[in-house]
Specification:
Length: about 200
């Protein structure tokens, strides 16, 4: 039961992650999170929560205590949206570079995009976020086995390591029916869970 999952919302009620029941209870005991009643959206802090009966997930007994298992918690202070590392793939390099060729600035068809090693591999360039850029077939062929300086082809934008807004994979929310109502709305500006009732 301690390894069961609890949904974590930030202060604006945006789902940001899931955590173990164990961790959720620690956060509540430290006063940095409250338990959310999934039907009434009522928020209970630690003392209130411990005094309450069981939830659909049951109760947890530990060191003489018995407390209801929280299905959803809301953080009292944290309002961010964690950034997640982005996996290094060809497609993600294209995304980072806006599907542009960094040399000529054109937007070719995706099938005409290639990955260019800024410092060519033959000159010790590695395959990494900071040495790989998207380039059209023409520019890549023209640049060939040279550095941008040698080819006199300056980069229009410098490569960087992307950190994209994280948040919870919607598939994780789909896991538990009571979590569905915390799914971000499609309509901008409307966040389910903020308005109780309904
Ligand atoms: Zn180009």
């Amino acid at each position: 039961m301690l390894d069961h999952k609890t949904l974590v919302l930030n202060r604006s009620w945006r789902p940001i992650t899931t955590t173990s029941v164990r961790r959720a209870i620690v956060l509540m005991a430290r006063g940095v999170a409250g338990a959310v009643h999934p039907n009434t959206f009522e928020v209970a802090e630690w003392e209130t929560w411990v005094a309450r009966g069981s939830t659909p997930l049951g109760t947890l007994r530990a060191v003489g205590f018995e407390f209801p298992v929280p299905e959803v918690i809301v953080l009292t202070a944290y309002n961010g949206f964690p950034e997640l590392p982005v996996s290094f793939t060809r497609r993600n390099v294209y995304r980072r570079d806006g599907f542009l060729c960094v040399y000529c600035g054109q937007t070719p068809r995706v099938s005409d995009l290639t990955i260019d090693h800024v410092v060519p591999r033959s000159r010790g360039g590695d395959t990494s976020w900071l040495n790989c850029v998207s380039a059209c077939i023409r520019c890549n062929a023209r640049k060939a086995d040279r550095t941008p300086a040698q080819a006199e082809m300056p980069l229009q934008r410098a490569p960087f390591v992307p950190r994209w807004p994280g948040g919870l994979d919607p598939r994780a929310l789909a896991e538990r029916p009571v979590w569905h109502r915390f799914m971000p709305a499609k309509t901008p500006g409307v966040t389910p869970g903020v308005t109780p009732g309904g």
